[in-house]
Amino acid sequence: MKASRIVKPKEELQLQELKTPVPKSSQVLIKIASSGVCHSDIHLWEGGYDGPEGKFLKTVDRGVKYPLTPGHEIAGFVEDLGEEATGKFNKNDKVIVYPWIGEGLCPACIEGEENLCDKPSSLGVYQDGGYADHVLVPSYRYLVKINENENINMDVAATLPCSSLTAYNAVRNARLEPYHNLVVVGAGGLGLMAIQLAKAIFGARIIALDLDNNKLKTAKENGADIILNSKKEDPIKAIMELTSNLGADAVVDFVNSSQSVQTDMQFLRRRANLILVGLYGGELKLNLIAMPTKAFRLIGSYTGTLNELVGLVSLAERGVINPVVTDRFKLEEATQALSELKKGNIIGRGVINP
Description:
Layout: E1 2-5, E2 14-17, E3 28-37, H1 39-46, E4 48-50, E5 56-58, E6 73-81, E7 94-97, H2 107-110, E8 134-137, E9 143-145, H3 154-173, E10 181-185, H4 189-202, E11 205-210, H5 213-221, E12 226-229, H6 235-242, E13 248-253, H7 258-264, E14 268-276, H8 290-294, E15 297-300, H9 306-317, E16 325-329, H10 334-343, E17 349-352
Parallel strand pairs: 10-11, 10-13, 11-12, 13-14, 14-15, 16-17
Antiparallel strand pairs: 1-2, 3-6, 3-8, 3-17, 4-5, 6-7, 7-9
């Protein structure tokens, strides 16, 4: 099998020939049709994140080992099954892989939140993932069947286990009502999906913030009621005016940088929910008096559960949501894919088709 791997952080990914694994027990071998390119892959490629006070938080310090095949958004076909998986799935079944694999014993895993496991072994992060033509999935339990139709193909399906799932979990954490004003910060792939979900499921009034007019135009096409370029106008003033000087009922920040969150804090309504999703990093200074007097909630949101993924697949198959895939790359173009994403040149979602 072929895989595009991070051998050393900040170096070009290397296309390598690896031995194709043979599934045993409950394992399943998937032939990959499409693998999404995610911002978190950039952090793996760079070797870490920006932390408080300018400190660089290394991925190796949180258990990541190199060389690594990144990629956690995976859609493909069942190619081979271990003996315990036989009968659960059949060869050539079209599937999405749930990549957020836990150790199964911690409180989060017991409650069905393996994405928040104390000792995770996520595909594409702690074990080899989807920048390859095959991937070994530890158990058939992490597979969700899909039915390709006019609403969902393999490229769209690949975005569901992270981009769409993360947006879904974030929007649910926002606790929206139809009369709420929701601000979505960042109109990339995740932001666009959050806009679709918030409009389709909750009917909230959506204000999209970004620095790129092309992304904002796409946000409008995907359901945003109002678009604001925060590079060209003061987002605090604009949002306060749009909300009768009360502020936003909820903010979902898909950037989550020091600057973006500091701005978010200035247009929160009392009792608002601020959902932090992005991994840009940095630090935040809080006005502690505002915490009790405004009674807002500061919530971290990280991917989503397997059950939520099943629900998302149903929404996609019925055409309720339509993930936006704008860029496609070959396996040998993985470094280019990450570079284009880092530069902000991918408006929706990029995928690798091995």
